[in-house]
Amino acid sequence: TLVEYERGHRLAPLDVVEAYESELGLGAGTLAAVHEGARLELYGEDRAHLRTYVVRPALDLPHQLPPDVAGFTGREVELGRLRAVVAEGAAGTVVISAIAGTAGVGKTALAVHLAHELAPDFPDLQLYVNLHGYEPAQRLAPTQVLDRFLRALGVPPEELPSEVEEQAARYRGLLAGRRALVVLDNASSAEQVRPLLPASASCLVLVTSRDRLAGLVAAEGARVLMLDVLAPLEALDLLSRTASPARVDAEPEAASKVVRLCGHLPLAVRIAGARLATRPGMSLGALAERLSDERARLGELSAGDVGVRASLALSYQALAPEAAQMFRRLGLIPGPDFARVVAAALLERTPHEAERWLETLVDAHLVEIVSTTGRYRFHDLVRLYARERAQAEESDHDREAARRRMFEWYLDIADAAERLLIPGRRRLPHEPTGRWNEPAFATSAEALGWFDAERANLVAATHQAADLGLHSLAWQLGDASWTYFYRRSSESDWEDTHRIGLAAAREARDRQAEAWMLASLGDLGDFTLELRRSEESASAFKRSVAICREIGDREGEARALCGLGHCKIHLGQLEEAIECEQRALAISREIGYAYRQGIALNHLGVAYCDMGRLREAMDCHRQALAIRQALSDRWNEGISLNSLGRVFCKLRRFQDAIDCAKQSLAIAREVGHRWGEARSLELLGVGLCHTQGIEAACPCWEEARNIFTDLDAPQAEEEPARLAENSEVLDSNT
User: Fold this and answer.
1) Boundaries of domain holding 187
2) Of 112, 331, 505, 616, which sits with the fewest C-beta atoms within 10 Å of its C-beta?
3) Last-in-domain residue among 192, 210, 226
4) Does 196 share its domain with 86?
C-alpha cells in the first residue's frame, strides 16, 4: 500500500501521512499541511474526503478526438497564432485557448484540426465534448460533462460524485500532472466551461464558442482568437476541394462569384460545394445565378440537415427578447454598415441603450464592430437572416415605423451637416424632427467626415424610401446630399439619387420638388464641362425655370437661372448667359438671398472676362468675394479668388494673380476641394511662368495635371507648354 502511495496512484489517508512524519522524524503537522493542501485542491472544502481515492487508475485512458476535417484548407495565419499560444504557455498555469466566431465560420474544424496536430504532444489522454451551447434541448450542463469525463477516466460508477464541485475536484485530480488535451466545442458561456478546466500546467484546453467568452479571459487568462471568414483564395480552394478542382478550373469567374455570394463563410462554401458534388449536371454559373437572388439565397445554402439558416437560428434563439428585436430591426438598414444612433432610431431607444444591445450581438458574433471606425456591420448572410426574421416576426406597421425613423435620422443629420459645408445655401423645405441629439458637428470637416461614413447608406436609403413610396423622404435625402456629392465630385451617386428624387417628385405630383431635382441634375451636367451634358443641362434648367415661374417659387427660379447661365457660358453663348445671370441676381437681391447673389455675380464675372470686359468682370468677382467672406463660405471664397486671379492674368497683373492663386490654393486644400486645388495650381503656374519663367511654372502644372488625372477630368490632357503659350486667354470656366 505504501508503494502505491509513493507511486502517486492514491492520496494517502491522514493517519498514514502522520505515520510518515513520525518515521521520518519530522515535526508534527509538516506533511499533514501538504496533505491538506492536496486534498483541498482535489476535493475542495468537503471534509468527507478523508479516505483514500484512486487518483490515477491504471486503465487505458481516453483518446476521444473526432476525425480530422476532410479537405481542411487555409487558416495558416490562425494556426500559427494558436501554436504560438500553446508554445508560450505560462509556467504553472493551464493553457486555455478559445476560438470564437460567428456560426459557420469554421471554429470546430479549426479546433479539431489543431488538436490532431498537437495530439502527439499530449499522449496521456485527449478528451472531447460537444457542449451544444446554442441548442437548448441538447445543451450539456457542466455536471453532465464531468460525469462523462470521469467515467471515461475510469472512475467506477459507485464512486462517481453527484455534486458539480466534487466532480470538478475529482476531474482535476485525475488530470494533475498528465499531458492532457481537452477540446470543449460549441460552448455558450464561460460559466458552462469553467468547471471543466483542469488545474495542471501540463494540460491544454481548446474552447470554441460563438460568444467572446470575456469572463474566461478575465478570470482564467484564456487567450481568444476571433475567427473571421476565409480569404477569397482560401474560399476558392475549399470550394475546389469540396466540389471538384476540374469544375472550378473550368468556370473560374462563376466560382469566384459563388464564394463571394457565400460571403466566404466556410459552412456556406462547403454547402455550395456539396450541392455541386451531388449534382454533376449543375454548372457553377447556374448555382451563382440561383444564389444571386437574395430572397432565396439562404434556402439554397442548405444540404440535408445542414444549413446556414439553421446554424444562425441557434444563435438567434439564444438571444434575450430585446437583443433579438434589435437584431431583426438592424436587418432593415439598407446600407453596408451603421452607427449606434441608427440602431437607437430603429428601436426608439437612447444611443446608450442601443449600444448595450449592440454589444450583446457583437459578443454573440451576430454583428461585427469595425475597430477603425467604431461602426457596426453584418456579414452578408447574417444580414439576410435578420431581414427574414424582421419580415416574419415584425408587423407591417412596426417595420414601416422603424424604417421611417431611420430615414428621418439620416435626413435630419444630413440637413445639419450640409449647412456647415456651404453656409447660406437654401434647399427644399424641410422641418427637422428635433428627436436626435447626436451626432453634432463643430466644424465642416466633421460634417464632411460624417457624409463620408454614411455615403453608401444615404444612397441606399434614398432607393429604399422611394421603393416604399416615401416620396418626400426620397427627394429630401437627395437634396440634403447635393453639396456633399458636389464637393466630393461623386457624379454617379449625385445622378443616381437625384434621378430617384425626380421620379419620386413626379409620382407625388410635387411640382416644387420636381423643379429642384431638375436643377440638381442640371448642375451635374454643368459640373462635368462636357458639351453634350451642358446641352442636356440647359434643357433641364429651362424646364426647372418654367415650373418655378408657374408655381411662384422665386428661390428655385433664381437657382435654375444661375445654372442655365453657366451652361450658356460653357456653350459660348455669352450674351444669353449674362441675361440669365442678371435676372437671377435681381431675383436674389429682391428676396434677400445672399448665397445665390454670390453665385450669379461669379458667373457674370466669368462671362464678362470671356468677352474681354475685364473691369466689369473684376467688379463682379470682388462683390461675389465680399458676399462669400461675409457668409464664411470658404469653398466659394476660394472659387472667387481663383476667378479674380484669372482676370488679373488677362490684365497682365501677374503678381496679383499669384497672390489670388496662393490664397485660393490654401483654401482648396483646407476644405478638400480637389478640383479647386488643380485650378489654383494651374493659375499659379501661369503667374509664375510670366514672372519667374517656365521652370518655376512646370511643377505647378504637373501637380495640377496629376489631380485632374485622379479626377478623370479632360484638363489632364492639356500640356504645360500649351498653357504657357495661351496664358493670356486661359480658360476661365470654373
Assistant:
1) 76-226
2) 616
3) 226
4) yes
